[in-house]
Amino acid sequence: MKNLRSRAVLVAAALLAASTLASSPAASDGSGGKHRHPHHDPPDSPDSGRVVLDWERTAFAAIYPATPIPVGVPLLGYTSIAMHDAVRHSASRSDSSETAAVATAAHDVLVHYVPAASAALDAQLTTSLSTVPDGPAEDRGAYIGAKVAQWLIEDRADDGYGDTDVHYTLPPAVGTWQPTPPATDMLAAWIGSMDPLVVHRLARVDGPDRLTSDDYTVDYNEVRLLGSATSTVRSQAQTDTALFFNSNSATMVGDALVRYLEGHPATLEETAWLFASMHGAMTDSLIKCWQLKRDVGFWRPFQAVAGAADDDNPDTQPEAGWTSLLPTPPYSDYVTGHGCLTSPAVEVIRTRLGETTPLELRSSNFPTAPRTYPTLTQLEYDALNSRIWGGLHFRDAMADGYGIGHRTARKVMQELH
Known about the structure:
This protein is mainly α. The protein folds into two domains: about 5-25 and about 45-155, no CATH class; about 190-415, Vanadium-containing Chloroperoxidase, domain 2 (Orthogonal Bundle). The protein contains 14 helices and two strands. It has helices at about 5-15, 50-65, 70-90, 100-115, 120-130, 135-155, 215-225, 235-245, 250-265, 270-295, 300-305, 335-355, 375-390, 395-415; strands at about 360-365, 365-370. Helix 2 (about 50-65) runs antiparallel to helix 9 and helix 8 (about 235-245) crosses helix 13. The longest helix is centred in the last third of the chain and has 28 residues, at about 270-295. The chain starts with a helix and ends with a helix.
């Protein structure tokens, strides 16, 4: 497998050597090919982190809502990694505009993967470049950004994205998820076969609880009582929380971070690093999540409640006509996709900006009632429990998904230093 991270330094050397510039950048920072600490803009740099925020917003709009939520996540990862690499390669020169490099890299990656949005992407590139004085620095930055995008696209060309030959194939059995007609397959089974974007090894978990275990019994009865569409024990606050977080989990935290950084600006390198870490970790967490959804295929609560009479567990009682509060997406329970997106995003922000970072979350289901939490732990508490209160997941799937996300985020942040 080709690995973008390990080739980044070689990319920088190759693309800059190919230019007509007289001087050449440093090919390595002496850290074994890993990225240097991303805190420092060049002295007196006119570039700011605003260009990254603009292109993150542009990426959200280009990729969603037409793309299914999990399918769009790697595209966010590609775009943010390209911006991060463009900043680093441009910043290694004293005569290159980082703004032009970032904007061009993001534009070219998105045009390649989302060609239907080309007109809007072209317009945003014009807007971004209008903030850069015409001249050699702009040209050089644009050249660097274009080459970074080209290398990323080439490097990811055979990474498994969109490989429709990959399918869910587990046969029907007690405890095994099956597609609900008219669906005949899980959504985007190929995600579980993608090459990781940043990390070399994906996180490991111990698998779902045995159907006859005490832990499964507790989880089963919790979601049966609290997650039902007709639950009489779920509070209105829990219902509202389930509905609030049933929004686009790929963009909810990222959108909040964009708006936070607009009011609390960071350097260009720091801003690019934050989103590369966030979206890189989300991508690699999602790959592990989808691998488990496809290869383990643990049943959803609605299937478990319907099939409880056959699970050999006397403490799990079936309930005729049980349905979840929220619509069940076309893939299995273990592990949570929602958690594998929310938890790495939050972990990056917690590590870099602090536990009390006041993110304002916005939900499509409550457009006039955003939420801000005193701590990120409280945010995660609601986000995690929302999928149980919505009847979509057992607690074990949520806990293990959050474990994957947190561990992956920490590994990605180490790789991108």
